[in-house]
Amino acid sequence: MDRIAIISDIHGNIPALEAVLADINERGIQNIYCLGDLIGKGPEGEKAIRIVRDCCRVIVKGNWDDFITRETNSSVLQWHQQQLSPHSRKFLESLPFSKDVIMSGRKVRLYHASAESLYVRIQPWDSLEQKLAMFQPSELTGFLWEEPDIVGYGDVHQAFVQSFLGKTLFNSGSVGNPLDSSGASYAILEGNYNIAEVSAIGIQLIRVPYNIEKAIEIARKMDMPQCDEYIQELTTGKYRGLN
Question: For labeling, which of 17, 102, 135, 198 is most exposed (least CB within 10 Å)?
């Protein structure tokens, strides 16, 4: 069977990215897809872009990848913009919205946040109606299929697999900024790639420990803005917006 490692939301955290890629390599998985948010929140966005470009066969655009290329009055966003080369900014602008694949006879759609937008956020506890909307085609996803059987996404930094009404929705979690655990997260999609005949298929969620102290040290040395909030998220797995 074929396996695709699905990573997302690296957010400039190189120690986490390196740990995840080492785990993927140890498992002998050669195909890696990235569901966006290479940069932002963490300090080393430029390096994350270079690594992901080298190792991933598919990269789709995340919300950070989108708004980081636009003019802003935010000093925090300006700091992250200054870390990127003009070449990297153009690369982020060129990223596609979604990727469709066939796996063991199932239609699989992969994108960052939702079929509607890079900025519409769907959490694992949201309503069935909201989750079913993730399977609807849109101008952004294109109309290759009326509906996919499986949708995989990132954005919310919460890893999960849920099945309902014959559909499966999964989130790969976050490599560099998980908000449901302090360990880096990614997913493995296993089946027969590009084969129309229905056969066995699997989705596995992987947690990888990494050197959080090293990630914190890098952020501090680079004098990254909102460093305390970033450290809180890395060490607790708790979103900075929660009390």
Answer: 198
